[in-house]
Specification:
The complex is a heterodimer of chains A (about 290) and B (about 750).
Chain A: E1 3-5, H1 10-16, E2 21-24, H2 30-35, E3 43-46, E4 55-58, E5 61-65, H3 70-75, H4 83-91, H5 95-100, H6 103-108, H7 114-117, H8 132-135, H9 156-162, E6 166-171, E7 174-179, E8 202-208, E9 214-220, E10 231-238, E11 241-247, E12 254-256, H10 273-288
Chain B: E1 2-11, E2 14-23, H1 51-55, E3 71-77, E4 83-87, H2 90-94, E5 99-103, E6 130-136, H3 139-148, E7 152-155, H4 162-167, E8 176-180, H5 183-189, E9 192-200, E10 212-218, E11 221-226, H6 231-242, E12 249-252, H7 268-280, E13 284-287, H8 290-295, E14 303-311, E15 317-327, E16 346-354, H9 369-386, H10 391-397, H11 415-426, E17 443-453, E18 462-467, E19 473-476, H12 486-498, E20 505-508, H13 526-553, E21 560-563, E22 566-569, E23 575-577, H14 579-582, E24 590-595, E25 607-618, E26 623-634, H15 641-660, E27 691-696, H16 720-732, H17 743-750
Parallel strand pairs in B: 3-13, 11-12, 15-16, 19-20, 26-27
Antiparallel strand pairs in B: 1-2, 3-6, 4-7, 5-6, 8-16, 9-14, 10-11, 10-13, 14-15, 17-25, 18-19, 18-24, 21-22, 22-23, 25-26
Classes of the chains: A alpha+beta (about 290), B alpha+beta (about 750).
Chain lengths: ~290, ~750
């Protein structure tokens, strides 16, 4: 890192997001990526003054800016009708990290797979040849099969999906709005990215429609606090219809079929135990919907 | 009069006989029982001397030391569990701007003829093993220097599996066999038998402050700031390495951010820092990052243990067999607790430490004993249930009042009191009520486990006290307070014996310069070793103070006493503040020195205790929560109940990590740990911490010393994990196959 910029407007920020620049919300993930050589940006573009952190009414819905912190989301009275969002924000990380970490950063954070993060390996997702998890230790990994079996770490992503949230993306060239799950993609051999953002594009916020009738979040961590979800399930109900989504079971957040939450999630030899947990958490989340 | 006598000293089970300097003890008379005595300071809660500094960020730890011109060091480590370093481009590394020196395995180091062999390795045999060290103006330049070494490292085959190492007879040390009586016959003839195989995890100390050292040479004098529990050992190690007298080495350890058994000598960081400082003529700082801390600072070794126990219908244990495979660590020193904790005549033990390609273990809070008690106490529970006894009652029935390994009696043992008290506190008699359905749908259960450990300390240990004209008494000790509160304990003991308010007593430690010796902070030795010396020194100063008071108040000193700073005559006609004496001292001081007397002969000094844990289990998602732990330990006299409770709480929390979440996970391809960062190596948080209720037997060990305190650093971590897993069995009727009790393991046990 040779330069640090703290633009005071979004346009200024977008102009800086060229080659070799990394946007930074709270920096809680970026710092770790740099530390372990996963990212080596020449310029860090700190977004905290870019004016994209507000939580504002938007017709019958609400727009949450990308640099709103997890602590702000967890405490926002504007979000009381979106309970699953607040619960998910409060479940993530530790109090110190929630005070710093942001919505945009949480959605775009890299996987916690220890082979991807570890300095001793160059794994398939990181551009290498081998998914070491599949031939090694993967009891915390996903239930899907494929080239990369890592587990998606964001608590917020499944919560925002069941709320019908859309992701607001801006670049110098314009703006687009994506369904939450369309922010993510399964990596392919010619493109190992887990998100669909093009170079120069930035997540600037999430738009939530009318609140659901009820919503809930259930998660299983490695300890009682300060743990990424091993498995988490978000649920929401509108009219009679239940929507479910999960983190921790595939390398991207996935929507679940309420009639068969385990569909397309066969499990890997050491991670199969997560199927039982996913089933139980889905039942509990749905039960909370009343 | 001074004499040298032979005294037996125990440290972590190692028994040694050493010469002890014995002087007349002015405090030879033991203090009375806690309940009978009228104590002003001892036994009353005293806030930690350095507590405010530690929690407000004012404490300056070794990692905080910044010296002008100081260099930083980055260490190249092996990414493979077994490898050969084919080449290192030292010349290229030296061309990196800011790089000042490079050490490789064959670099000369230390005294004439010395080298870095033994510190840096060309054929590393565990992942994280250091290969080279680079000192540079900044940490970034040091890192760039390591990259510029362009290390060519060839991976070699590694062994991580117990069975494979066993079949190839790759032993780290000779297997240890223990025999007493006739195990096989007794086992076959008994009314009931149980067998249990259990795996315990690699537990890493994970102190908040990493291993670190800053070294500076001034001519031929070396000063080091070190994060260590052994400043005198560090001094000796550096003096030996550089071939210089000890008085040319000064070790400073004002604050240490935790040790838990590690940081026990002049480690790699101290030797690297001193050598690189010598080569460059600049101060040098070496501090581990968290990855190095988790990979290369030692650990509690992993074990796979099999125990077979047999007992009879009368509730008597008749045979114990304990076999353990250990991942490159010591089985512990002295007799296994499996063979001495309960009365048993027939035992067989076999401990095999296997040379796996893993980081060699080092001492970790009750080394050898904690992991064995974790398995033994499950088997004891199983046998009790098999024979139809309440587990706690079964333990009482097998109580033993002498050390079965040596045949010697204990100097004191109040374990039966501990059982009674902890059962009362926890409501043990009603524990089956927990088995009823709960509204939250969780299963609950309660389990217990017993603890035995050393903790007698011993000589040599010294203290000097100096009372000045300002009325402040300064206690000079060789204590390195690694966070345990031992300096505060010394303050309490000195205040009591001096008869001064606690606030008027200062305590220093953490500096080898005064050359007032105390043992390293290990083996639960500091309080039992140092406090008697402090008391003796204080007795000398008090006698002199009262003599001077006799002069000032024109009475006989024999008629005077002092308590909390008030000097009084027997008939209370005189009642004056001690400042009326000390203010007349001007710049003179009243000095006194004391030393620890020898240990009792023909007696074994041990600590004991019992803990009960209550757990809740969410069976659908495989979650175990520890809800409450009750702990009652026999550690002799409790000097500072506040500090003592804190020690017990810390031990319990650390054991919860061992039981539920901590382990080193190895990648089979490289043999490197996958989780050598704190995001994946999960130590407990405050949210994982249960309610903890602490009490003590409060029985001073009058045979041991003039204070009667045994050590407390290690005892509390010993029984917690076993109590937790026994509570799990009470709740579910199931046993897990090992620890940590991850969701995966718990779901497998419940399947």
């Amino acid at each position: 890192v040779t330069a640090y910029a703290r633009p005071s407007s979004l346009d200024e920020a977008l102009a800086l997001l060229g080659d070799g620049a990394a946007p930074m919300g709270g920096g809680t993930d970026l710092a770790g990526q740099i530390d372990r050589g996963l990212a080596s940006p020449a310029t860090i573009v700190d977004l905290q003054d870019a004016g994209i952190g507000a939580i504002e009414r938007d017709g019958d819905g609400i727009v949450v800016g990308a640099t709103a912190t997890l602590a702000e989301i967890a405490e926002a009275t504007e979000l009381v009708s979106y309970m699953v969002f607040r619960q998910a924000a409060l479940a993530a990380a530790s109090a110190l990290l929630r005070n710093t970490g942001t919505l945009g950063g949480n959605l775009c954070q890299h996987t916690r797979c220890w082979y991807y993060r570890g300095v001793e390996w160059n794994c398939w997702l990181g551009g290498g040849e081998t998914c070491y998890a599949q031939i090694g230790e993967h009891w915390k990994h996903g239930l899907q099969t494929g080239d990369c079996i890592s587990a998606h770490p964001s608590d917020l992503a499944p919560a925002l999906h069941v709320l019908g949230g859309t992701v607001l993306v801006r670049s110098l060239g314009g703006e687009r709005e994506l369904a939450l799950l369309d922010l993510y993609r399964r990596p392919t051999s010619d493109n190992r990215s887990l998100v669909t953002l093009a170079p120069g594009e930035l997540v600037v916020g999430v738009r939530l429609p009318v609140p659901p009738d009820a919503s809930a979040y259930e998660r299983a961590g490695e300890r009682q606090a300060f743990s990424f979800p091993l498995v988490s399930v978000a649920a929401a109900k509108r009219g009679g219809e239940v929507t479910l989504a999960a983190a921790g079971v595939a390398n991207i957040p996935v929507g679940l079929d309420p009639a068969d939450p385990l569909r397309d999630l066969p499990g890997n030899p050491q991670s199969e135990w997560k199927r039982k947990v996913l089933t139980a958490l889905a039942e509990r989340a749905v039960a909370h919907l009343g | 009069m001074a004499r040298l006598v032979k005294s037996v000293v125990e440290m972590e089970g190692r028994i040694s006989e050493r010469w002890a300097l014995v002087e007349d003890d002015e405090a030879a008379e033991p203090w009375p029982d806690p309940l009978d005595g009228d104590f002003a300071a001892v036994g009353r809660p005293a806030p930690r001397l350095d507590g405010a500094k530690r929690v407000t960020g004012q404490a300056r730890y070794t990692v905080d030391i910044q010296l002008p011109g100081m260099l930083h060091v980055e260490v190249l480590r092996s990414p493979f569990a077994h490898a050969r370093v084919k080449s290192l481009d030292v010349e290229q590394a030296k061309t990196v701007p800011g790089v000042r020196a490079v050490l490789t395995p064959d670099s000369p180091a230390g005294a004439e003829g010395g080298s870095c062999a033994g510190l840096l390795f060309a054929e590393p045999d565990y992942a994280g093993c250091p290969i080279a060290a680079v000192a540079a103006d900044t940490p970034e330049a040091a890192r760039a220097g390591v990259i510029a070494l362009s290390a060519d490292i060839e991976q070699l085959p590694h062994i991580l599996d117990y069975e494979e190492a066993l079949s190839r007879e790759l032993f780290e040390m000779d297997p240890r066999e223990t025999l007493r009586g006739d195990f096989e016959s007794a086992y076959a003839a008994a009314d009931a038998r149980v067998e249990l195989t259990f795996e315990t995890p690699t537990e890493i100390h994970s102190a908040l402050e990493p291993h670190s050292c800053v070294a500076r040479w001034d001519g031929d004098e070396l000063t080091v700031w070190a994060s260590t529990k052994a400043m005198f050992g560090t001094r000796a190690g550096l003096a030996r390495a550089f071939g210089m007298p000890q008085d040319q080495v000064r070790v400073l350890v004002e604050f240490v951010g935790g040790s838990f058994g590690a940081k026990a000598a002049a480690g790699k960081e101290a030797l690297f820092a001193a050598e690189l400082a010598r080569q460059t003529g600049r101060p040098v700082r070496v501090a581990n990052d968290r990855h190095a801390e988790l990979n290369d600072t030692g650990n509690r070794p992993p074990t796979r243990q099999t125990m077979r126990l047999a007992g009879n219908k009368d509730g008597k244990l008749v045979a114990v067999e304990a076999e353990s495979l250990i991942g490159r660590g010591s089985p512990g020193f002295g007799a296994s607790p499996a063979f001495v904790l309960y009365r048993v005549e027939n035992v067989y033990g076999l401990d095999a430490s296997l040379k796996l390609n893993v980081r060699p273990a080092n001492a970790f809070r009750a080394p050898g004993t904690m992991e064995r008690i974790t398995v033994l106490e499950q088997a004891i529970d199983d046998l009790a249930l098999e024979l139809g006894f309440d587990p706690l009652e079964f333990r009482r029935r097998n109580h033993v009042d002498f050390d079965q390994a040596s045949g010697e009696p204990y100097s004191s043992k109040a374990l039966l009191d501990c059982y009674e008290r902890v059962a009362e506190l926890a409501g043990w008699a009603e524990r089956d009520r927990l088995l009823r359905p709960h509204p939250d749908g969780l299963l609950r259960g309660m389990g217990c486990a017993t603890q035995i450990w050393g903790g007698g300390g011993g000589p040599p240990s010294h203290a000097t006290i100096r009372l000045g004209g300002d009325g402040i008494a300064t206690v000079v000790t060789g204590i390195q307070d690694v966070g345990t509160g031992t300096l505060t304990a010394a303050q309490v003991v000195a205040a009591e014996e001096l008869g001064l308010p606690v606030a008027q007593v200062r305590v220093t430690g953490g500096d080898t310069q005064p050359n007032i010796y105390a043992p390293l902070a290990a083996g639960s030795m500091t309080v039992p070793s140092v406090m008697p010396a402090v008391r003796s020194a204080a007795a000398v100063v008090r006698r002199k103070l009262l003599q001077l008071a006799g002069d000032v108040f024109e009475v006989s000193p024999d008629d005077l006493s002092i308590r909390e700073g008030q000097i009084r005559s027997k008939d209370r006609s005189l009642d004056r503040p001690y400042s009326e004496v000390t203010e007349k001292l001007g710049n003179a001081t009243i000095d006194g020195s004391g030393s620890r007397g020898p240990n009792p002969t023909g007696k074994r000094v041990n600590t004991f205790g019992c803990q009960i844990a209550q757990v809740a289990i969410d069976t659908a998602v495989g979650e175990v929560r520890v809800e409450h732990v009750w702990a009652v330990h026999d550690v002799g006299r409790v000097v500072n109940p506040l500090g003592a409770s804190s020690q017990v709480e810390g031990g319990i929390i650390q054991a919860i990590g061992f039981a539920l979440s901590e382990d080193r996970v190895f990648d089979p391809t490289t043999g490197a740990p996958t989780n050598a960062w704190l995001d994946d190596y999960k130590v407990p948080t405050i949210a994982d911490t249960p309610e903890i209720t602490v009490d003590f037997a409060h029985k001073p060990d009058y045979e041991l010393s003039n204070v009667g305190s045994k050590g407390l650093g290690e005892p509390p971590i010993i029984p917690t994990a076993a109590a937790i897993v026994n509570a799990f069995r009470h709740a579910t009727g199931r046993r897990v196959t090992g620890m940590p009790m991850t969701r995966k393991r718990v779901l497998e046990a419940l399947a």
